[in-house]
Design goal:
Distance between the termini: 36 Å
Order of helices and strands: EHEHEHEHEHEHHHEHHEE
Largest sheet: 6 strands, parallel
Radius of gyration: 20 Å
Number of strands: 9
Strand order of the largest sheet: 3-2-1-4-5-6
Shape: elongated
Structural class: alpha/beta
Helix content: 25-40%
Oligomer: single chain
């Protein structure tokens, strides 16, 4: 599959700077960031944290003065740039880094134009913006260590850290079960690779890491609701994983 060229547009007023390395690594899993820009009023002390990481990660700062008190002028600058980049034809997709619902219409418009849209923001991000993206990743999970969070009984987390993880509850199991049934062949088996893509179409912010698991297979195994069949492929080093709902 061809590597996507991505425009990364960051709203510095609405996301923290500390996980910038992890954010860029996450973006690189989806394509190549060919444009990296960050928007803010750089005269404000609130964005000092970002100033220290821009050069290290080759992110171009865009100055946008706040003309009106209480309004985030960076939003309009980011939106205008996004449309200019769209019409330039130089990218295949966008990554909008923000927790602001004001970018909901932008994400929708970019997808209407055939662009892949990835969102990155905090858990406080309003649902309309999350839903408007093809995929949405929460900042809180990017620094999590899977080996620590899949065994909470032995590694108790602080109250603050516990709130960043979602529970494997009845609603999640229903989502998994129904999705497997939707994709299943006549014998009830579903290819795990297809299931991951299908879940994202249903729920843009679906990610096994939200529940403390590094991969989808580990999450599925934890529910004890599915049979798992690992089948050999033409390449003996690669196995194709199929799952179906237990009878």
């Amino acid at each position: 599959m061809e590597d996507l060229r991505l425009a990364v547009l960051i709203d510095a007023d609405n996301v923290p700077s500390y996980p910038v390395k992890e954010m860029l690594e996450e973006i690189s899993k989806n394509g190549t960031p060919t444009i990296k820009r960050i928007y803010a009023d750089w005269t404000k002390p609130t964005v000092t944290g970002w100033k220290n990481v821009l050069l290290e990660h080759a992110i171009t700062p865009i100055q946008q003065y706040s003309y009106t008190t209480g309004k985030n002028s960076s939003d309009s600058a980011l939106i205008i740039d996004a449309m200019d980049i769209l019409y330039s034809g130089k990218v295949d997709g966008f990554c909008i880094v923000s927790s602001d619902s004001d970018f909901t219409r932008l994400a929708t418009r970019l997808r209407e134009a055939g662009m892949k849209v990835i969102g990155i923001g905090e858990k406080k991000t309003p649902q309309p913006f999350i839903t408007a993206c093809d995929k949405f990743v929460y900042i809180e999970i990017l620094r999590a260590k899977p080996q620590e969070i899949i065994a909470p009984a032995r590694h108790p987390k602080s109250k603050k850290e516990k709130t960043t993880l979602s529970r494997v509850d009845h609603a999640l199991i229903n989502l998994l079960t129904q999705s497997v049934a939707d994709l299943a062949d006549e014998s009830g088996w579903t290819f795990l690779g297809e299931l991951g893509s299908f879940l994202l179409k249903k729920k843009a912010d679906f990610d096994p890491r939200n529940y403390g698991f590094p991969k989808l297979l580990a999450l599925i195994k934890s529910t004890n609701k599915f049979e798992i069949d690992e089948r050999e492929s033409a390449n003996k080093n690669i196995r194709h994983v199929y799952i179906r709902v237990k009878a």
